[in-house]
Amino acid sequence: MRASTAALADSSIRLWDLDFPRQGVLLARTRAPYVALDNLIAFSKKDRDGKVDAYLAAYLPDEVVVLYFLGGDLVTACTLAPQGRAPLGIGDALRRIRAESERAEIAFHTASPELLAALYATCAQPPGSLGVEPRTPEAVFKTLFERRWSGLLELISNGGVNYLLVKDGRFAGGHFARQRPDEAPLSYVSRLFSSVPPEPLPQVAARLYDAPGPLPHQAPPAMLTMFRTFAWDLSDLIEHEAPGEGAKRAERVRQRLLPRHAALCCVGGPRGAEQPNPVVEPGVLAEAMAAWTRELLGELEVLAPQSAPRLLKEAARPHRFALQAVGFFERLPWPVHW
Questions:
Q1: pLDDT beyond 90 at 263
Q2: 53, 77, 150, 249: which one has the fewest Cβ atoms less than 10 Å from its Cβ?
Q3: What distances in angstroms separate CA 263 from CA 50, 57, 286, one per listed residue?
Q4: Coil, strand or helix: which one is 122?
């Protein structure tokens, strides 16, 4: 299989050559047709040995898609592509991997939550400029020390990705892709800038990021599907109560709330229609759907008093336990008694 020549944004680094830091290897880089992706994800959720903190890197022809696991649960995803890096909806990430399975390779590695957060931060944050050419480690750290800079320094050398934590311009720790077991961190960093003749000196790419926070969780595809189904069911029930008005009223309310609740982009439209898969935290999605439900049923209460609790209960019944788990009912003014 021919390796992809696609390069990381604003660099000559081939995406196919990227090698991320790791703590252990669960699955060495393997041709994707030999990997049962669904079984791997299911194993992570169900088996005690699979409940690990880890990432899955899928090397596709035009991008690298990374899936993040905490305690075996798939919690978020991101993409690295020639157009740039960005968070990615879990459903979109899985769809892209499956679509290119014949031409992709997959690696599955354990990683600490701190390492996962650093990897994700370099995809979710806009990078800052070092301001000098990263030709030597002395030039890099002299610049950072003069600026008393603190944050996350990403160094990529010959495809090896490294994350260095910096406090007030001084090295404070890091995660390294190809560090030898007996090699001191600063000796390894120096090696990133050197080569053995006649090999040319490596091209080192340096980017600055804010110190990463905890790895965020995004609403999984099952939650998006649940809320979409709930929205369609509630719209149909209102349509039955007020023929010709249910779907129109639901859409008007959704459009009115979109500027304040962007997560509502993933619901609405005809039943079964394709919808975007936003990168949104579960609580944010639950609040957006609760705001839509409050306003929609509040309007209906004016026309048909006491109808809101009844319609809410009927639409929510198939999903009541999952809705309760995300605190959906607590955000509504109508008590529901099962």
A1: yes
A2: 150
A3: 31, 27, 9
A4: helix
